[in-house]
Amino acid sequence: MHHRTHKNENPYSCDVCGKGFSQKGNLDRHYRIHTDEKPFSCDVCGKGFSQKSNLNEHFRIHTNEKPFSCDVCGKGFSQRGNLDRHYRIHTDEKPFSCDICAKGFSQRYNLDRHFRIHTNAKPFSCDVCHKDFSQKSNLNEHFRILQMKSPFLVMYAIRIFLRRVI
């Protein structure tokens, strides 16, 4: 079985997307992507994960364990991917670029946020006055100002929102 990995043999393939695997266990784990099955859950916050290794990695958030550190500035990270993204600050690497204006970004999230400038998308909406915002931080600031100006209106809107959700 192990030799299949080195010979690039993939006799097990996903009937949903066609991706091939050398071992049946890897195919079984892969299926969880399509079924959204998350059999591993965090005892602290309840967040679910499709793989045990992802749960173990997540758990470091609660223990504040940071085994990955930047060799340039010493900043610690709980996840390897976060360290890899952080390195781009030092290298000025910008692997994500806008298809419209070619502006580069070090993180996918920043490209997605930037792209809303071109599309005028405003996916964040105020539950009190229904004003729309392109960035969640702008909605949060708007909501904070509303709370200072009219706290009773905000509390009323929150009650209405909770009735809809529950």
TrEMBL record:
<keyword id="KW-0479">Metal-binding</keyword>
<dbReference type="GO" id="GO:0005694">
    <property type="term" value="C:chromosome"/>
</dbReference>
<dbReference type="GO" id="GO:0045893">
    <property type="term" value="P:positive regulation of DNA-templated transcription"/>
</dbReference>
<keyword id="KW-0805">Transcription regulation</keyword>
<dbReference type="GO" id="GO:0008270">
    <property type="term" value="F:zinc ion binding"/>
</dbReference>
<dbReference type="GO" id="GO:1990837">
    <property type="term" value="F:sequence-specific double-stranded DNA binding"/>
</dbReference>
<protein>
    <submittedName>
        <fullName>Zinc finger protein 227</fullName>
    </submittedName>
</protein>
<keyword id="KW-0238">DNA-binding</keyword>
<keyword id="KW-0863">Zinc-finger</keyword>
<keyword id="KW-0804">Transcription</keyword>
<keyword id="KW-0862">Zinc</keyword>
<dbReference type="InterPro" id="IPR036236">
    <property type="entry name" value="Znf_C2H2_sf"/>
</dbReference>
<feature type="domain" description="C2H2-type">
    <location>
        <begin position="40"/>
        <end position="67"/>
    </location>
</feature>
<keyword id="KW-0539">Nucleus</keyword>
<dbReference type="GO" id="GO:0005634">
    <property type="term" value="C:nucleus"/>
</dbReference>
<dbReference type="GO" id="GO:0000981">
    <property type="term" value="F:DNA-binding transcription factor activity, RNA polymerase II-specific"/>
</dbReference>
<feature type="domain" description="C2H2-type">
    <location>
        <begin position="68"/>
        <end position="95"/>
    </location>
</feature>
<feature type="domain" description="C2H2-type">
    <location>
        <begin position="124"/>
        <end position="151"/>
    </location>
</feature>
<keyword id="KW-0677">Repeat</keyword>
<dbReference type="InterPro" id="IPR013087">
    <property type="entry name" value="Znf_C2H2_type"/>
</dbReference>
<dbReference type="Pfam" id="PF00096">
    <property type="entry name" value="zf-C2H2"/>
</dbReference>
<feature type="domain" description="C2H2-type">
    <location>
        <begin position="12"/>
        <end position="39"/>
    </location>
</feature>
<feature type="domain" description="C2H2-type">
    <location>
        <begin position="96"/>
        <end position="123"/>
    </location>
</feature>
